[in-house]
């Protein structure tokens, strides 16, 4: 077995897995707090990639930025803008599409979510058209360092490190802060939390903001990595990320992250073995097997005590 | 009736005196149609992808039809163009194509149809036009299975003896050979990596490239299929790069991943490896939004080749180009002349036998008929395929940021 190739494919799997994991977190957080499968979440990610494309082209960047300081500044700006805009979009979606239906039968917000998904797709399509568009790749896609003769791209390392940093920050926020505690208590028992003085509406809006901001970050990363986006990108990625969330145990943020990486490895692994055409079939077969033998996912639902 | 001289003369004359851009005037009455000056309204139907990312394919092709209708008048008839769009969300769609052809079949004024552009759309349309007996001429379809062998027969099983689909583009069994010819003889590559988009056109083309490249003496290091949902080719390319191919061939169209694949090759350090594809990636210059060269990006389109399954050096290129430019203010697309030729053939038939659908169909598909078109002399064989087996070779030109024609090759009686 060629060690160098294995190493490169491992990095590829971690990179694509990091993107899935970032999106999966939003699915799992929303499900955890209001038990809604937010089908519009994949399209929030897609819109984030278009916002990035718009920002970079408006600023006049066409390709690689050579100067490290400028690059760091533009990257920070891109993440700030995409995460803030998409976070705000998430809050708006929650306020107008889901909050009025919070006490309705579960099927109603699910259908609304599908509707919101189409609305986002159609808005993006009407602004930027139905065809794939180029996203300026401001990080040099070829720049790499060598590990035992195998080139490893800085871009991949950047994406993996960034995704892990965001996930750790999320864990700390949910686990160690007052707002995080409010989120957890709302997830466990909404009424009891309210009685204890937690502002339910603000807490749920905050959950949507964070989840959507992470999807916005994934949108930036996708643009940098693939150099291209299209208005249907949210459906594919959303489906994979949703699968990742279920695989890891929906409602469980660590599980969602793990699920994202597992799907990255399954996809790259089937390519590695020469079965690219089968990668989606393999992903969903594994999902079915996991659900049959471990209905709560790999790490189990964190909210098991509620059921 | 070996050569339809009349049509040829009219065409050449029309080409020399560039088209007037005003609305088409009714044909002068009292011509061959006889009768006291009544002009019959007839339509040529068109089905092409006319929106989104495939507009660069469909638009210039539709213009070819419009130009022919503007330039060539048929006494006793006023011909208009009825265009349908088969792109859904920017991608050609077989279901939409079959709806469109039904719409055209149900319009009694339509006597012939130019289109479609994509092979999988043709697959959905041929059974409908065959059952209705409405003649279709595709300027661009190249999949062999549409006409040849058991696959072709299956598509026209309603009226097996009545061919209702002809094409002026030659087939992928020849285009794939040409792709292999570029890789092996022009570039000098001995090893190649092949990716196809798993669709009718893309996989068919890639399979012929695969076998032709081996027949020439080359080695295929790997052949992968990645459908249009694949956006990340990184892991495929990582695996392929380890096998050091000297050439990469893509069977598919831009909207199913061609540009993206070329762009991501650069990230894998494969930017200098020559890349080739068929007419599916020959869709306009880098300045055209969503074209292959546009999406492949500034580094990705060096050393890139494509083929077009049509003659480039048409008998009278300057006149055609000038007429086209006068009418539409741009240069013709790869298949504009082909669409013009389809329309010429239909107008010849209209002139000879009138607008009855069955008469037109029978006239066009008569194998003994030769048509002197803008592409040169063409006849159709018993399957409806063109007698012209010429492939044009293109290479990316970094100065103009566009495809530059460098050679055309006649594959003669092959295939």
Whole-number total of structural domains of chain B: 2
Task: Name the beta content range of chain A.
Answer: under 5%
The general outline of chain A is globular
Main β-sheet, spatial strand arrangement of chain B: 9-8-10-11-12-15-16
Strand content of the residues of chain B, in percent?
A: 15-25%
Question: Would you tell me the structural class of the helices and strands of chain A?
Answer: mainly alpha
Strands of chain B, count: 16
The DSSP helix count of chain B reads 13
Report the principal-axis shape of chain B.
globular
Q: Give the full name of the CATH homologous superfamily of the largest domain in chain B.
A: Response regulator
Contiguous runs where pLDDT drops below 50 for at least 5 residues of chain B: 1-36
Along the chain, the helix and strand elements of chain B come as HEHEEEHEHEHEHEHEHEHEHEHHHEEEE
Would you list the SSEs of chain A in sequence order as H and E?
HHHHEEEHHHHEHHH
CATH class of the largest domain in chain B: Alpha Beta
The main β sheet of chain A shows up as:
2 strands, antiparallel
Intertermini distance of chain A: 47 Å
Q: State the share of residues found in helices of chain A, binned by percent.
A: over 70%
Description of the structure:
- The complex is a heterodimer of chains A (307) and B (415).
- By secondary structure, chain A is mainly alpha-helical.
- Chain A has one domain (16-231).
- Chain A has helices spanning 3-34, 41-58, 68-98, 107-128, 154-176, 178-188, 190-195, 200-226, 233-248, 253-272, 279-293; strands at 133-134, 144-147, 150-153, 228-229.
- Chain A has a two-stranded antiparallel ribbon with strand order 1-4. A two-stranded antiparallel sheet of chain A has the order 2-3.
- In chain A, helix 5 (154-176) packs across helix 6 (178-188), helix 6 crosses helix 8 (200-226) and helix 9 crosses helix 10.
- Chain A starts with a helix and ends in a 14-residue tail after the last helix.
- With 415 residues, chain B is α/β, with parallel strands linked by helices.
- Chain B is built from 13 helices and 16 strands.
- Chain B has a seven-stranded mixed β-sheet with strand order 9-8-10-11-12-15-16, sandwiched between helices. A five-stranded parallel β-sheet of chain B has the order 2-1-5-6-7, sandwiched between helices.
- In chain B, helix 3 runs parallel beside helix 4, helix 6 (172-187) packs across helix 7 (200-216) and helix 12 (336-353) packs across helix 13 (357-365).
- The model of chain B is unreliable at 1-36 (pLDDT under 50).
- Chains A and B meet through helix 1, strand 1 and helix 10 of A and strand 9, helix 8, helix 9 and helix 10 of B.
């Amino acid at each position: 077995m060629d060690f160098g190739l294995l190493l490169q494919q491992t990095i590829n799997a971690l990179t694509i897995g990091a993107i899935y994991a970032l999106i999966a977190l939003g699915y799992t957080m929303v499900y955890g707090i209001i038990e809604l499968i937010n089908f519009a979440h994949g399209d929030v990610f897609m819109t984030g990639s278009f916002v990035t494309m718009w920002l970079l082209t408006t600023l006049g960047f066409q390709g690689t930025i050579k100067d490290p300081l400028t690059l760091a500044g533009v990257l920070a700006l891109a993440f700030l803008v995409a995460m803030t805009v998409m976070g705000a979009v998430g809050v708006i979606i929650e306020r107008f599409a889901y909050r009025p239906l919070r006490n309705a039968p579960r099927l109603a917000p699910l259908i609304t979510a599908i509707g919101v998904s189409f609305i986002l797709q159609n808005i993006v399509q009407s602004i930027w058209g139905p065809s794939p568009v180029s996203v300026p790749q401001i990080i040099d896609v070829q720049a790499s360092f060598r590990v035992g003769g195998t080139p490893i791209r800085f871009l991949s390392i950047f994406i993996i490190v960034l995704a892990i940093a965001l996930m750790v920050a999320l864990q700390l926020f949910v686990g160690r802060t007052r707002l995080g505690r409010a989120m957890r208590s709302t997830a466990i028992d909404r009424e009891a939390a309210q009685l204890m003085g937690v502002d339910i509406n603000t807490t749920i809006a905050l959950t949507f903001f964070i989840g959507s901001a992470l999807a916005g970050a994934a949108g930036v990363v996708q643009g940098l990595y693939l150099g291209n986006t299209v208005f249907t990108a949210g459906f594919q990625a959303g489906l994979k990320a949703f699968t990742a969330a279920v695989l890891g145990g929906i409602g469980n943020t660590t599980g969602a992250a793990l699920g994202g990486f597992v799907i990255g490895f399954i996809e790259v692994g089937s390519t590695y073995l020469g079965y690219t055409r089968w990668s989606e079939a393999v992903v969903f077969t594994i999902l079915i097997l996991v659900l049959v033998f471990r209905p709560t996912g790999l790490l189990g639902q964190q909210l098991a005590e509620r059921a | 009736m070996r050569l339809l001289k009349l049509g040829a003369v009219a065409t050449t004359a029309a080409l020399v005196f560039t088209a007037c851009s005003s609305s088409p005037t009714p044909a002068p009455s009292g011509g061959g149609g006889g009768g006291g000056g009544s002009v019959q309204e007839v339509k040529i139907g068109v089905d092409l992808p006319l929106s989104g990312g495939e507009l660069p394919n469909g638009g210039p092709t539709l213009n070819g039809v419009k130009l022919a209708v503007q330039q060539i008048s048929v006494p006793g008839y006023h011909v208009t163009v009825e265009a349908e769009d088969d792109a859904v969300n920017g991608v050609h769609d077989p279901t939409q194509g079959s709806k469109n052809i039904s719409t055209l079949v149900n319009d009694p004024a339509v006597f012939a149809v130019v289109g479609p552009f994509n092979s999988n759309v043709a697959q959905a349309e041929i059974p409908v036009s065959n059952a209705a007996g409405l003649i279709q001429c595709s300027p661009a379809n190249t999949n062999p299975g549409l006409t040849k062998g058991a696959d072709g027969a299956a598509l026209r099983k309603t009226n097996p003896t009545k061919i209702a689909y002809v094409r002026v583009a030659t087939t992928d069994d020849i285009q794939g050979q040409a792709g292999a010819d570029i890789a092996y003889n022009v570039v000098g590559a001995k090893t190649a990596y092949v990716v196809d988009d798993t669709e009718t056109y893309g996989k068919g083309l890639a399979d012929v490239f695969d076998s032709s490249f081996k027949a020439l003496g080359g080695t295929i290091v790997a052949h992968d299929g990645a459908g249009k949902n694949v956006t990340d080719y990184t892991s495929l390319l990582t695996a392929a790069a380890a096998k050091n191919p000297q050439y990469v061939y893509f069977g598919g169209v831009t909207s199913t991943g061609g540009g993206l694949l070329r762009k991501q090759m650069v990230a894998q350090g494969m930017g200098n490896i020559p890349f080739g594809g068929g007419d599916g990636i020959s869709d306009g210059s880098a300045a055209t939004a969503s074209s292959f060269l546009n999406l492949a990006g500034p580094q990705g389109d060096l050393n890139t080749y494509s083929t077009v399954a049509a003659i480039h050096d048409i008998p009278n290129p300057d006149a055609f180009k000038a007429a086209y430019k006068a009418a539409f203010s741009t240069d013709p697309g790869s298949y504009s002349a082909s669409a013009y030729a389809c329309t010429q053939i239909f107008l010849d038939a209209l002139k000879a036998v009138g607008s009855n659908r069955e008469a037109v169909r029978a006239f066009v598909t008569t194998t003994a008929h030769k048509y002197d078109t803008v592409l040169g002399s063409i006849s159709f064989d018993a399957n409806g395929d063109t007698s012209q087996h010429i492939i044009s070779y293109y290479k990316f030109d970094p100065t103009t940021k566009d495809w530059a024609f460098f050679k055309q090759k006649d594959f003669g009686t092959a295939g």
